[in-house]
Amino acid sequence: MLLKLRYYGDPILRRKTVDVSPEELLSSEFQEFLRDLAETMHAEDGVGLAAPQVGSEKRVCVAADGETVHVLVNPRIRGRSIQLTCDNEGCLSLPGLQAQVARHERVIVQALDPQGHPIEIRAKGLFARVLQHEIDHLEGVLYIDRAEPNTLVWLERKGEDEVDRVPVELAEVKRVFARRYHQGKSREELSFDPPSFQQASQIPSSGGGDERRG
Ligand SMILES: [Zn+2]
User: What are the structural domains of the chain?
Assistant: First the structure.
């Protein structure tokens, strides 16, 4: 079953998630939810998807490493390279937007697999970026919170394979999302701003890169 996506402004995207208990994990309902999460990621053409993006407060996400989809339960980053790389990022909860984000080049992630067995993933490059993006979601953090200054753009399709990158201020993005995805809701019912968090070190933009949506 495809799950309904939640969009920027929805308060659930700004809440910290809660760990999944062993009993809950093994329940047929939760196993089905995990399959739905992966199915929804594929349907939306994403490379990752976290539970809050489909309205769940559980600490789970899916992340693609090429053709392999990892289902991560209660994931946590246990190791980070000192080296950072900057590249374009997007998010299924913020359609049409992209920004440059500095991420650790390598990370070590510990989690449980869908059967509850401990796993450890050593990731680098794009997969490491996806994992950091998804695990941020589980803390209520969005990539725009970590974006390099003045790199946020709208992607506007101009033709077959031509895309315009139009710089935009975050204040304007909030206005557009309130109008486009949360019509009829008052500003008090929406939540755009991040919880407090440790900001990634700022490094100069390196430019280039494909669109990455998580
Ligand atoms: Zn995302």
Answer: 11-188 (3.90.45.10)
